Amino acid sequence: MARLEYQWPYQNKSLKDMKGEIWQEVPGFDGELVVSNFGRVKVLSRFIVHKNAPNGFWTKEKIKVQSVTKRKNNYTGDTTIHLSCIIKRGKRQMNLSVRRMVYQAFVDSDIDHMNSKIWFVYVKDGNGFNCSADNLELISSSEAKLREIKDGRRLPINDLVRREAHWQNYRSSLGNRAEPVKQYDLAGNFIAIYPSCTAAAKATGVGRTNIGASARKVFYRAGGFVWRFEFEEYKGEYAKISQK
To answer: What 3-state DSSP class applies to 101?
Structure first.
């Protein structure tokens, strides 16, 4: 059996259809752009006339190259994947979300590309490389935030306010003294204690602000480590958090 040269459908640049692949027009492109139920994007052959070719010519079909964007979650420290591709129409150039095109073509043709700040197309399994039509769903921005909180990927605003107030009270009690900070690995093993976030940053190369944010539990970790101020312990609660 021939070895596949790609792991995900978007990496397959062959014009040959994959097994079970179905193509649909992307609304708004006059039949020139199609997307498959697996998330591949194809520009169809079209007749073009311009000053260097007054008699016109037919372009070739081609599979569009997709860009991978990794968006960091500052709370967990991991990343989510988003696929997009650049589409040109005349002098206009657009960077379109692949998952939105698939959803629009196979699930709901009324979805508005310009409404992406209100409605999000989510991947059900959390894997941004999997833009198959059956892996997509449309949710509101408020629902997206609730899901992130439920999945431990966003801190509820009440918890954030409470933690900041707690830290400010502790900071006030120190007066002009710097607060010692402790360094742990994700499993909860103690590594070192430093006299301040500044000292920890100099010793480890991790940003001072990020160390402080981890110590205040605004972020899970910083520089691959978990940080706590002297009065708190870390016992490995985040050990199961994985990269996405």
So the answer is: helix
Nearest to 32 by CA among 46, 14, 48: 46
pLDDT in tens, 10-56: 999 999 999 999 999 998 888 889 999 999 999 998 777 777 777 77
Is this prediction's pTM over 0.85?
Answer: no
How many residues are present in the chain? 244
3-state class (DSSP) for residue 6: coil
- What is the C-alpha to C-alpha distance for residues 104 and 22, in angstroms, rounded to an integer? 14
Range of the domain at 198: 157-229
Contacts of residue 163, Cβ cutoff 8 Å, sequence gap at least 6: 155, 216, 217, 218
Indicate which CATH number applies to the domain containing 42: 3.90.75.20
If we measure between CA atoms, which residue out of 101, 102, 97 comes closest to residue 133?
102
Digit-coded pLDDT (tens) for 107-126:
887 776 546 667 789 899 98
